[in-house]
Each structure stands twice: as structure tokens, then as C-alpha cells.
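INTERNAL AUDIT FORM
Audit reference: QA-55
Scope: verify that the stored structure record matches its stored sequence.
Auditor: D.O.
Record contents follow.
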Amino acid sequence: MSQIPNVNAPSSGQQAFGSANSLNDLNLDDFLNLMLAELQNQDPLNPLENDELIAQISQIREVGATEQLTETLGAVLLGQNISSATNLIGAEIDAISDDNQRVTGVVDRVTINGGKPQLHIDEGPQVSLSDEPGEIGEGSYQYRVVWGDGQGNLFAIDPLASSGLEGGVIQLSEGGKSILVSGLPITATPKDIYRTDGTGKGDFRYLGTLTDGNDSSFVDTQSDENLSTSVLNNTPQLIKNTTRSFTISLNNVGEIRPPR
């Protein structure tokens, strides 16, 4: 007469419970089906003893309890993560998005994907102080981000236009700083970054290039003395009201600044 194997006491030639074998894939339904099959096919002249039946039922109860505990713990963890995520709505965060972009912005909403909460930020171009070391001196600065369409047309954005900074410039009251330009749109070609000197006027001088059109941020660390002599001579078409959406996993959130 066949019996359900005792998963807690492997016999010789069997792998221990918890190792990589088919027993690990058995769930409560599998155990019940095995038990019913055994009862239906047992020898009527030599039926299963009561104590053996009770032992197998106990095993089934243990499996069911383990599954229920796992489901309960998973539900509790999901609830905690959802609570943590929803508490971030309206807060400004520094994070890495799911497409590996550096993001600074205000959390707009939260969605659940695959049992995990995800934060969403709809961000336009921004200019702000960066925490990274830099050599930018005291003064006022303007920026332009320029790219082409591959057909001879040039486009640009003024990232300060949506930053709400007075006079369309970012002002530094002391030197030795760096500036983050973020929330840049996706482009089909590389993006060139230009900046004025500390007067906030005059030519826009070349800073660097984001070679990947998906890149959304650039950190400016250069002093006026180290700026390139290359200037923005052409007059690109200025694009306004560009917004980019970012999706962020909860564990990729860095600094959090609560709503004021």
C-alpha cells in the first residue's frame, strides 16, 4: 500500500526537505489530492490505520498553516509598503527611476504593479543646487539645453523657465558649488548643455553633452574660467512646457523632503 511520503524525515536516496526537489513544489491542494488518491486506491483488506491517517492530516494542516502564514506576511508587507508610498505623495524626493535616471521632483501618485508600490513623478526641466563638489563661483547663471532632429533643425529648452526662479536665473550667494539640471526631455539625438558666466548675461558657452537622448540630468561643476570658448551661435527653436514622467520603485528613493 502506498503512502504519502513523510516530508519531514527523508529516507535514504531522498534529498532533505528544503533542497531542490519536487517536494518543494507541493502545495496544500497537492497534498489533499494525494491523500484522496491514496484513500480511493487503498487495499480494502488492509486500510490505512487511524494513527497513520491522523499523521497525514497533521502534515496537511502544517502545509496549509505555512501557506496561510506566508500569504498573511506578504499582505502585511504589501500594506506597509503601500502606506510608506502613499505618505510620500506631495513630498519632494531624490531618487533613481526605473529607467536608471536621476530624478528630483514631487511625487504625484502611487500605483501597484506586480504586488509592489511604484511612485510617479511628472517633472518638467529644473535647475537646482547639487550636493556634489563643484567650482562654480558666486553669481547669476542661465542655461540652455540644445539638440537637433537630424535634419538640420535645432531645438532648445530653458530649464529655468519652469523652475520658478526669479529673473530666469539661478543665483549663488557663495562659490564652490555645483548645479543640477534635471527633468530633461527624451530626444532622438544627444543634448548639448550651455551656460552663461556669472553675470547671467552674454553668450551661452558650451559645458558638455548628454550623448544618450534618454538621459534626463546633467551636473554642472565648472567655474567661469574653465568654460569652453565654444558658444551657442545659432538660434534654436525654444520649446516650452515639456514634461517627462518617471516611475520609481520605493527602494530607489534617496533623500525625502516632506511637503511644506
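Auditor finding: record pair retrieved intact. Residues 22-85 form one domain.
Action required: none
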